[in-house]
Amino acid sequence: MARKTAAELAEARKVAAAARKVATAQRVEAARLKAEAEAEAERLADEYEAQLRANRAKFRQLESAADGMYDEIEKLNRKWPTMNVTQHMVARTNKLLGETRDLIKDEQDLFIDGLADIVAAGDPPETRDVVLILREAKDALTRYEAKHKGEWAEVSEEEDEEDEDY
Amino acid sequence: MSATPAHLPLPAGFKLSMSQAEVDFVIPDLATDIPVCIDPFLLYKSRDATLRALHDQLLAVFSHGFSLYEANDRRGLDRLIDFPEVNAIGFGYTQSGIHGSGLGWHLNQLVADLLESSEEVRTRGLKHVEELQLLSVGVGPDRVSDIAAGVLKTSLIDYTHQQARLWKIPITAGVPIAHYLDPADMEWRDGYFDLPVNPLSGLPVLLVPRRIVRLLPWINYPDFYSNEAKLLLPPQPRLPRFPGMTKVKRLEVAKTELVQKARQKPAVLEQYISRKEHDAANAEPLLPVSGADEELKTTSQDLRAKLKALSTGSAASADYQGLVYEILNFLFEPELTGGEFEVKTYMGTERRDLVYWNEAEHSFWKYVRETYNSPLLMFECKNTAALEIDHINQTAAYLGARLGMLGIIATRSVVSDAVMRKIYSIYNDSPALPRKVVLVFSDADMDAMLGIRAAGGSPVPYAQNLYRQFRSKVQ
User: Fold this and answer.
1) How far apart (Å, rounded) are the C-alpha atoms in residues B183 and B188?
2) Do B275 and B296 fall within a single domain?
3) Burial of B304 by CB count in 10 Å (0-12 exposed, 13-18 middle, 19+ buried)?
4) Which of B156, B167, B256, B295 is deepest in the core (most CB within 10 A)?
5) Looking at CA atoms only, how far is residue A84 from chain B in angstroms?
């Protein structure tokens, strides 16, 4: 077997060094990409978690407001079902309906149409109608909670509480 | 010689086809007086500045009369406070015929007597002409109507002219009209005008808008007697009574006593007037309802048939406009009242088909007036087979500070989706609140509302529902 010349050996060493260099660069790049992907996944997870937290917080506010409004108007309804509600009640009910619609807009809820704003147009609705509308809103919120409470359970309450403390 | 009929409504007298439900004026009975009156309070509370100015004019006559009294110009007072009955309007509470007594010179005496006996009244003056019923024994609701008719006579002449042209009531040239007020120098004058003439009496006929007519004036003696006057009366027994004494008789007996006390204590009168002004929303025009149900059905059927038979296209556009006017009068008087055709803007550059005064005191039309910031409501009539986007743009361009931000298009068919999208975009693109709203009354809507009205219901909730649907969809 013919011995390699010194020049050939030098060339081979050069090629090997270049190959090592490429391999190192590839490893670095792969590591960078992996780190980026992990960061992106973490960001998405945080975002999702934040969204869940925000939805949960909004849900709790709406549930509380809907319960309160329903209770108060239901009291009126027991005695004066055909009494027209005031303009203020219409405005507050519409605020609740608007926020509820916003929360459950992508949920394919069959009864979301029932949550359209009340247009009094000179004749505010009777208490019995407003009670029904609020009941629909409460039920829509209940369905929403049933669908999402499993996800919410995976998200800690700590940050919410911190926010509340703050 | 044929006997004079007991009743001869104006349409029968002139062989015309119209019913009370579809015209803006009170249809007079050419044979006898109708028991209604012109109520000056309806001028006072109107959103129409012209009518309010007429109320001011009415008070100005008496204010001038009071100053003549203060200046000891008794002849001037006698000349000014002179209100013979305006037989041409055919209003009054007499049992038969169309000739009441009117006040004539008698009111001079009553007013002079009032001013002489009450320093308080001289100082306070009159806020409403109807107060005379409470301050003078001889003045009743018919007298108040005579006073108002006398002062408003020139306005009624103009109005009669306008309505006669609209409804094709024959007009006779140069009919003498006696005793109309020239407000510039507070003098009564006589003149000749082109007016319809009563075929029975040969006297002129003056038409009175429904919007200023009631069965009794809003401020009236029986109401005063039943409420604030109790403060003036002695403790029990308040009034002389005898078995079988009628309420009318009791009121008559009490009036002498009450008038004296009201003159001495105008504070009670003031309290009553303040309450009536406060409750002004309840003072609505009102006409007798005899035979109303049958008339509603007949008029409704007639209007529905006319609408169905009318062709689309520009050749019939004037007919359509006239028909829409009749239908709107039938559906919404007196809430929407005083409808006028083709109102030009002051620059003469724009024409709207129909403009109504919105005098509603409750429900949807009141909401429209208050929310869309105008006492006027515009209707555009489009006698086309299909409404186009240009029609919507044109109507939207008319909406603004003067006519308010809500207008209605009356048209023949249901609007297409593309036109509906344009209406929504006009709403959404409005730069400020309230946003511009264009509602559409199609033939189907008109027909449905006419059906509701024929059944004795109000078509306002139907219109309200159209608005609600629009607002819900545009959300």
Assistant:
1) 9
2) no
3) middle
4) B156
5) 12
If one counts every other C-beta atom within 10 angstroms of the C-beta of residue A53, the result is 17
Q: Where are the beta strands (DSSP E) in B183-313?
A: 187-195, 213-214
Task: Please indicate, yes or no, whether residues B446 and B359 belong to a single structural domain of this protein.
Answer: yes
Amino acid identity for residue B187 in this structure: E
- The pTM for the full model equals 0.82
Listed in order, strand segments (DSSP E) in B151-239 are 172-182, 187-195, 213-214
**Residue B135 and residue B187 in one domain:** yes
Cβ contact, residue pair A123, B475, below 8 Å: no
- Phi-psi domain of B182 (left: phi exceeds 0; alpha: psi -120 through 50; beta: other): beta
Which CATH number do you get for residue B378?
3.40.91.50
Q: Are residues B271 and B305 in the same domain?
A: no
Chain B residues whose CB is inside 8 A of the A114 CB are none
**Co-location of B153 and B113 in the same domain:** yes
Chain B partners within 8 Å of A121 (Cβ): 364, 367, 464, 467-468, 471
Q: Whole domain around residue B343: which residue ranges?
A: 292-474
For testing the chain A interface, which of B369, B462, B464 should be mutated: the one with the most A CBs within 10 Å? B464
Q: Which of B262, B282, B302 marks a domain boundary?
A: B282
- Domain assignment of residue B287, yes or no: no
Distance between CA atoms of residues B324 and B468, nearest Å: 23
Residues 6+ positions from B369 with CB-CB distance below 8 Å: B47, B358, B360, B375, B377, B404
Q: Looking at B282, B309, B334, which one is the last position of a domain?
A: B282
Q: Which of B365, B368, B475 sits opposite A116 (nearest CB)?
A: B475
Calpha distance B221→B259 (Å, rounded): 10
Neighbours of B273 (CB within 10 A): 20
- On whether residue B102 sits in a domain, the answer given is yes
Q: Which of B16, B12, B13, B20 is nearest to B285 (CA)?
A: B20
| Domain ranges (residues) in chain A | 6-165
Give chain A positions within 8 Å (CB) of B368. Answer: 122
Phi-psi region at B408: left, alpha or beta (left = phi > 0; alpha = psi -120 to 50)? beta
Most B CBs within 10 A among A119, A126, A133, hence the mutation to make, goes to A119
Whether residues B301 and B154 share a domain: the answer is no
Inside any domain, residue B5: no
Which residue on chain B is closest to A116 by alpha carbon?
B472
Contact across the interface for A119 and B365, Cβ inside 8 Å: no
Residue B385 lies in a domain: yes
For residue A117, the chain B residue with the least C-alpha distance is: B472
Structural domains in chain B (count) = 2
One-letter-per-residue 3-state SS of B311-366: CCCHHHHHHHHHHHHHHHHHHHCCCEEEEEEEEECCCCCCEEEEEEEECCCCHHHH
Q: Same structural domain for residues B112 and B238?
A: yes
